[in-house]
Design a protein that fits this description.
Blueprint (H helix, E strand, L loop, with lengths): L3 E5 L6 E6 L10 H15 L6 E6 L4 E3 L4 H4 L4 H19 L5 E5 L2 E3 L1 H7 L3 E5 L3 E3 L13 H9 L1 H10 L2 E3 H7 L4 E3 L4 H13 L3 H14 L4 H16 L2 H11 L10
Parallel strand pairs: 2-3, 3-5, 4-6, 5-7, 6-8, 7-10
Antiparallel strand pairs: 1-2, 8-9
Helix pairs in contact: 1-3, 5-6, 9-10
Length: 261
């Protein structure tokens, strides 16, 4: 049995679920889980039929509790350096997926677990969620993008509060701060995340991919450069078959049948 499972939802074209599947360890991120997540994201990135991804968990009480500290306790400095390369690839590749990624978070999402959610484009969390970056309390710092992605989401002072204190917050506070995009009822994070991904997957695949590319690449760029990035993405979309189908469907008052090319 693997630590990561890919579920393709044939009843919802284009929606693929990426499941953290190490429930006996609350999805603690081992080197093997990280390797499997790297392989899974590479598979999805290369599949043009994928329009939206949902990152979920099979563990009943946790989305992901972060790095496997039991494994960490058994490796030396050289082993930690080698593991770091795998972990860095895991976070980087998830962040770089060309389609929108929605995290469906329940239970504990701590350390690297919260960072996995931060690497997604949208976070849906239910009332059971417990969120935090406790790394400084165990002698490290967030290293899966937490210091950067959290600051970009929340601003300096709110991110500093969470990182420096290592405190845990519930989903309601996460939503107030802007860490959580959508709140779900207890037990409904996965269902609501899949519903959100279904809406996204119903739109132009070319348009959605290019919109994400423009937003990601332009986020930290000076405005003039960011507008050039947007223009390039617009041109890549406007002269595609998806644009022609979208305009035709609008005028014919029917649902588009996206070519996705």
């Amino acid at each position: 049995m693997g630590s990561v499972t890919i579920n393709r939802h044939d009843d919802v074209p284009g929606v693929t679920e990426l499941v953290l599947d190490r429930p006996e360890a609350h999805n603690a991120i081992s080197t093997e889980l990280a390797r499997q997540l790297v392989a899974a994201t590479a598979e999805l990135a290369a599949d043009p039929s994928v329009r939206a991804v949902v990152l979920t968990s099979s563990a009943p009480k946790a989305f992901c509790v972060g790095a496997d500290l039991k494994e960490r306790n058994s490796i030396d400095d050289d082993g930690l350096r080698a593991q770091r390369l795998v972990f860095r690839a895991m976070f980087t590749d998830l962040l770089a997926l060309p389609v929108p990624v929605v995290a469906g978070v329940h239970g504990y999402a701590l350390g690297g677990g919260l960072e996995l959610a931060l690497c997604c484009d949208l976070i849906v969390a239910d009332e059971s969620a417990v969120l935090g970056l406790p790394e400084v309390s165990v002698g490290v710092i967030p290293g899966g993008g937490g210091t950067q992605l959290l600051t970009r989401r929340l601003g300096w002072s709110r991110a500093a509060d969470l990182v420096f204190t290592a405190r845990r917050i519930d989903a309601a506070e996460g939503h107030r701060l802007g860490l959580v995009d959508r709140l779900a009822a207890a037990g409904a994070a996965r269902v609501d995340a899949l519903a959100l991904a279904t809406v996204i997957a119903g739109h132009s695949p070319v348009g959605v991919r290019n919109a994400k590319r423009a937003m990601r690449q332009g986020f930290d760029a000076p405005l003039a450069a960011a507008l050039d990035i947007e223009d390039a993405a617009w041109r890549a979309t406007a002269f595609s078959r998806d644009r022609k189908e979208g305009v035709a469907a609008f005028n014919e008052k029917r649902r588009p049948d996206w070519p996705g090319e």
